[in-house]
Design goal:
single chain; mainly alpha; Arp2/3 complex 21 kDa subunit ARPC3; two-stranded antiparallel ribbon; 8 helices; 2 strands; 76% helix; elongated
């Protein structure tokens, strides 16, 4: 099965999508209504398109490659990259799996909707149980200092109510926005990209 999947043509396509994902990964930017360490990037877009075109495995491989390339440049001791791997996979895998079984516009929309919900739910659980505790540990930052970092956009956040404020006011809307952008762009460009890929 691995030999049938990894043909020269598929490897070339994976290389193109991975390169685009890496470029978009480095072109990240903060938004004024989220804490500055939450940066929007569009690197899930090539992974989602690849997942629609080449199946869930292709989409996951694009996510994995971009993370591995980004790791040496991490400014968060790989915490941010771990978060991107978890939430990106939770978004792309369900969406591409559902589209693979239907390959219609309706299945694409349903897939992206389910993928978005899975990604947001995964972001909530992973931030609560893995990402934030891991960040505090490896960066040697206190929960009070992290709350202070968020206070410019959530003035009433404290160490005591951190999770109760940070998750619903930052994690959920941030990940919804991230998935919405990738889903909208994919919805409007996928058919054109798919036609080019078939020619390729």
């Amino acid at each position: 099965m691995a030999e049938r999947y990894f043909t020269a043509r598929r490897i070339a396509k994976l290389g193109i999508f991975s390169a685009l994902a890496v470029i978009l990964y480095f072109l990240n930017f903060p938004l004024p209504f989220f804490p500055s360490f939450l940066e929007i990037h569009l690197s899930d877009l090539p992974a989602l398109i690849c997942g629609f075109s080449m199946g869930p495995l292709g989409g996951f491989l694009v996510i994995l490659v971009k993370i591995l390339i980004k790791l040496p440049f991490s400014s968060t001791m790989c915490v941010g990259e771990l978060a991107d791997l978890i939430t990106g996979s939770a978004f792309v895998l369900p969406a591409s799996f559902l589209y693979k079984n239907g390959r219609t516009r309706k299945s694409a929309v349903i897939g992206m909707l389910i993928g978005s919900l899975c990604s947001v739910a995964t972001a909530v659980v992973s931030n609560w149980l893995i990402i934030i505790p891991f960040y505090l540990n490896v960066m040697h930052v206190s929960i009070e200092a992290l709350a202070e970092m968020c206070s410019s956009v959530i003035p009433f956040i404290t160490a005591q109510n951190f999770y109760a404020c940070y998750i619903p006011l930052s994690v959920i809307p941030f990940n919804l926005l991230r998935c919405l952008i990738a889903s909208l762009v994919t919805f409007f460009v996928y058919k054109r990209v798919s036609t080019l890929l078939k020619k390729f």
